[in-house]
Fold this protein.
Amino acid sequence: MNTNKFGKKGWTPNNIDNLKGKTFLITGANTGAGFEAAKILLSKDAEVVMLNRNEQKSQKATEELKEQFGTTAKISFIIMDLASLDSVRNAAKEVNETISKIDALICNAAIAQVPKLKFTTDGFESQLGVNHYGHFLLCGLLYEKIEQSKGRIVVVGSEGYKMGIKTIQFDDMNWNSNYHPMNTYCHSKLAQIMFAYELQDRIKTANKNVKIYVCHPGASATSLIKNSGGLRDRIIFGLLSMTPLVQSAEKGAYPEVMCATEEKLNQKAYYGPTGKMNWTGPVGVCKLEPYAKDKSVATKLWTVSEKATNYKWNL
Ligand SMILES: NC(=O)c1ccc[n+]([C@@H]2O[C@H](COP(=O)([O-])OP(=O)(O)OC[C@H]3O[C@@H](n4cnc5c(N)ncnc54)[C@H](OP(=O)(O)O)[C@@H]3O)[C@@H](O)[C@H]2O)c1
């Protein structure tokens, strides 16, 4: 029996009617799943603001999108490098001053399988710094605007959350003693997922309105490994991408777009492709391992993240 509430094909953009008047912010939208998400949202008449680290790539992406959707398409970008807390603060300030509402903030940007231990501007292990700490601060700084907009935050996780050490390495957050490109990436994605569910709990306790949804894109043919991974992983993922085990970047965008737009969702769920290994297939509810919602780890991670980013949430 098919248990997917969106039918045999799962959720697709056909489920979206029209998004005129809605504003979506996407981190890392100049390429990959973020870029495809921008395309889907623009095709439904939404406004999209990309938060990207590279000016040239952002301009190229904007041109491409305007070519496809016309010069009046509501697409713009703000420069933000998640590897620098100052850059995140500056971008958030610009968003708060220039964007009147946020219907959804999609935390999509990431680096993955970085071959050697590297540090962000603020001295964090690069994958944890970019994927988790950068987004933790951004969400905090934009929270009030999203609350006023009765909007949502979408956290793009990864099935990798269950391929690493399956908890948070509090005694060595920078992986000085045991750096491993994959385990350390998985650690950062688990941190993002744990942050999201902890944020949900805090919002509920504070009687606030923002909705938080968590998803993953399965295995999608994007530039993720090409951009940040080592040679061996680039070759392996390049070969895998030529097989049906890996889906298009466009399909990889469906879960995040669904989480940003669909009304009939459950915040406690974890959404993504539900086919083989959850890498491809109809978008629906995926199983979430219990350690991703371990309350004591999540609350400790929250405290550690506030200290690291020097940002105290009002929740
Ligand atoms: N592709 C997969 O199979 C897969 C699997 C599991 C999870 N995911 C998740 O899916 C999401 C989208 O990734 P993708 O596969 O679409 O990868 P992608 O094609 O590499 O896109 C990632 C985006 O993040 C941006 N980014 C990287 N570092 C940044 C920084 N410091 N500041 C701001 N932006 C930064 C990139 O910008 P540049 O272009 O400037 O590098 C790019 O726009 C990520 O959260 C990833 O963890 C992907």
